[in-house]
TrEMBL record:
Protein name from the UniProt record: CoA transferase
Superkingdom assignment: Bacteria
Lineage: Bacteria, Pseudomonadati, Pseudomonadota, Alphaproteobacteria, Sphingomonadales
Entry annotated with the keyword Amino-acid biosynthesis: no
Native organism: Sphingomonas edaphi
MF-aspect GO terms: transferase activity
InterPro entries, sorted: CoA-transferase_III, CoA-Trfase_fam_III, CoA-Trfase_III_dom3_sf, CoA-Trfase_III_dom_1_sf
The entry's keywords: Transferase
Keyword Transferase in record: yes
Spans annotated as Disordered: 315-343
């Protein structure tokens, strides 16, 4: 692997959502990630979240398979898991057990509610975690909040925070520190992404109402407008000079209201408006769907997306000037690397056959 994390080894206890996202980030940036899977897991064919991994399938109900995880953790720099609190402890694979054998291990845990607190053992999903962060209240039209796609809690507040925490703790170990446990709660991480909004509210610059603020569509110069073809453009002309460019491009007087702006945008197609505003600093962009985004000229020029075995997916990000990232490898078949991984741990042929048997 190439990238700034090359040389690090991470064990990923297979799960869904934020855990795989964090492991993808670490693998994309050069870490060797071994994914410990179990037969019959729910999955998406060629899931981008599972790229750049090695895979071993283990039945963790069996002690000899749990011992494999202990050996893997004993040779690793980090481990990530996204089970509900207490699951890893019941398997004898909790942080107390694994750090006892490897005191430099960074043990990353991502859950919805965190490892402690009144809700820690409750079930939930992204929408529940962002609900108590205060952020869900502000998403949607005036009438009611809406259910957003699970980017905010699962991936920004969960997976990305866990990846950042892992790299931070791994850096501390390289500077002479000890291994430690990372408690990444999606409810905490989601709240953190709203830091600016909380600051604006404290300063009297944000109201607890939807479509009543500068950045939630409350101002006509920041919002989404329908075009002649039924598609949309996004407008973000916050600063005065950008507003001036917007009004000029629409042939409207400065300070025109939302209705006036909407009427003009309905006179042309989305792509016609996008072309019209190129180079004007009016902060107008076409709202693209998932099929259109990979073939937008800017994304092509930046190689923002990559085709991996027929699946268009986001390329690794961010970019580095001196540590180029490799083209992602497609997801491995479940358990594809089991024999090689076990051989590397010192297991013999008969032991390997016993460990990898299907029961």
């Amino acid at each position: 692997m190439t990238g700034p994390l090359a040389g690090l080894k991470i064990i990923e206890m297979a799960g869904l959502g934020p855990g795989p996202f964090a492991a993808m980030m670490l693998a994309d940036h050069g870490a060797e990630v071994v994914r410990v899977e179990r037969a019959g897991m729910i999955g998406v064919p060629n899931d981008p979240l599972l790229r750049n991994r090695k895979s071993i399938s283990l039945n963790l109900k069996r002690e000899e398979c749990r011992e494999v995880v202990r050996r893997l953790a004993g040779t690793a720099n980090g481990l990530v898991e996204g089970y509900r609190p207490g699951v890893m402890e019941r398997l004898g694979l909790g942080p107390e057990d694994l750090l006892k054998a490897n005191d430099k291990l960074v043990y990353g845990r991502v859950t919805g509610w965190g490892q402690s607190g009144p809700l820690a053992k409750e079930a939930g999903h992204d929408i529940n975690y962002i609900a108590i962060s205060g952020l869900l209240h502000g998403i949607g039209p005036k009438e009611r909040p809406i259910a957003p796609v699970n980017y905010l809690g699962d991936y920004a507040g969960g997976g990305m925070m866990l990846a950042f925490g892992m790299v931070s703790a791994l850096l501390a170990v390289q500077r002479g520190g000890e291994g430690q446990v990372i408690d990444a709660a999606m409810s905490d991480g989601a709240a953190l992404t709203g830091a600016l909004t909380y600051g604006m509210r404290a300063a009297g610059l944000w109201r607890d109402e939807r479509e009543a603020n500068l950045l939630d569509g409350g101002e006509p110069i920041y919002g989404i407008y329908r075009c002649l073809d039924g598609k949309f453009v996004a407008v973000g002309a916050i600063e005065p000079q950008f507003q001036a460019a917007l009004y000029k491009g629409l042939a409207l007087a400065p300070g025109a209201d939302r209705e006036q702006i909407a009427t003009v945008f309905k006179s042309r197609t989305r792509d016609a408006w996008a072309a019209h505003f190129i180079g004007t600093d009016a902060c107008v962009a076409p709202v693209l769907d998932l099929g259109e985004a990979p073939v937008h000229p800017h994304n092509i020029a930046r190689r923002t997306f990559v085709d991996i075995e027929g699946v268009f997916q986001p390329s690794p990000a961010p970019r580095y000037s001196d540590s180029p990232l490799a083209r992602p490898e497609p997801p491995r078949r479940e358990g594809a690397d089991g024999e090689t991984i076990l051989e590397g741990l010192g297991y013999g042929p008969e032991e390997i056959r016993a460990i990898l048997k299907g029961d």
